[in-house]
């Protein structure tokens, strides 16, 4: 199977400096051209050549290190944020709005999502089989789906939306509506 061309169309051959007659004569003064590293082109002849500048080398080493929270956090890695995780984190930030009876400490005021976190599954003990357990129907894939399917939360959200709509409704037209027994027209009829 000796073919001069690769089957895929890719081939690689190292570039060896060609010695001329002048170069052979001055063997001590032979200078091989060093490959220059540029940020746009990191590969030289198909091989990676690290930069000679220590600042660029340090920057490159920092990029290659794993992104963790540090040794005091047991090198917790930064997870990739998917749209589902992003929604769950936003819901956790707004958790004080969800339940009027439960009060939380004020967290950090930054509007950015946390960089380092872990997601786990709560496993209930056998003693909570009848009391605090979610049934299979109530379990959802994400926290957002679980909150949207909760009946108590639906009723609370509906009531709050109606209260907000009532407060923002313009009041100018209200004085011309007939309000039953309390309106002016009904009062005139009652006086007669």
What does this structure look like?
The chain is built from seven helices and two strands, in the order H-E-E-H-H-H-H-H-H. By secondary structure, the protein is mainly α. It starts with 20 loop residues before the first helix and ends with a helix. It has a domain at 75-124 and 138-154.
Q: What is the terminal separation in angstroms?
A: 116 Å
* Shape verdict: elongated
Which structural class best describes the helix and strand composition?
mainly alpha
Low-pLDDT sequence parts:
27-40
Order of helices and strands: HEEHHHHHH
Strand order of the largest sheet: 1-2
* Largest sheet composition: 2 strands, antiparallel
CA-based gyration radius: 36 Å
Helical segment count: 7
- According to DSSP, the number of beta strands is 2
Share of helical residues: 25-40%
| Estimated share of beta-strand residues | under 5%
Q: Give the averaged pLDDT, no decimals.
A: 76
What topology does this entry show?
Elements: H1 21-25, E1 43-44, E2 47-48, H2 54-64, H3 83-93, H4 95-98, H5 143-148, H6 151-168, H7 184-191
Q: What is this structure, in a nutshell?
A:
This protein has 192 residues and is mainly α. Helices cover 33% and strands 2% of the residues.
Main features:
2 strands; 7 helices; 33% helix; mainly alpha; elongated; 192 residues; two-stranded antiparallel ribbon
């Amino acid at each position: 199977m000796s073919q001069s061309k690769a089957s895929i169309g890719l081939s690689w051959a190292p570039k060896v400096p060609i010695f001329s007659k002048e170069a052979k004569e001055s063997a001590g003064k032979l200078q091989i051209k060093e490959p220059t590293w540029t940020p746009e082109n990191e590969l030289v002849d198909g091989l990676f050549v690290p930069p000679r500048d220590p600042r660029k080398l340090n920057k490159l080493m920092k990029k290659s290190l794993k992104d963790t929270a540090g040794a005091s956090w047991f090198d917790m890695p930064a997870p990739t944020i998917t749209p589902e995780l992003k929604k769950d984190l936003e819901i956790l930030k707004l958790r004080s709005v969800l339940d009027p009876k439960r009060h939380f400490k004020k967290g950090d005021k930054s509007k950015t999502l946390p960089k380092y976190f872990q997601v786990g599954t709560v496993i209930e003990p056998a003693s909570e089989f009848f009391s605090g357990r979610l049934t299979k129907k109530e379990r959802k894939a994400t926290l957002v789906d679980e909150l949207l399917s909760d009946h108590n939360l639906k009723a609370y959200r509906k009531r709050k939306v109606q209260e907000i709509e009532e407060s923002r409704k313009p009041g100018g037209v209200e004085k011309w509506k007939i309000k039953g027994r309390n309106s002016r027209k009904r009062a005139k009829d009652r006086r007669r």
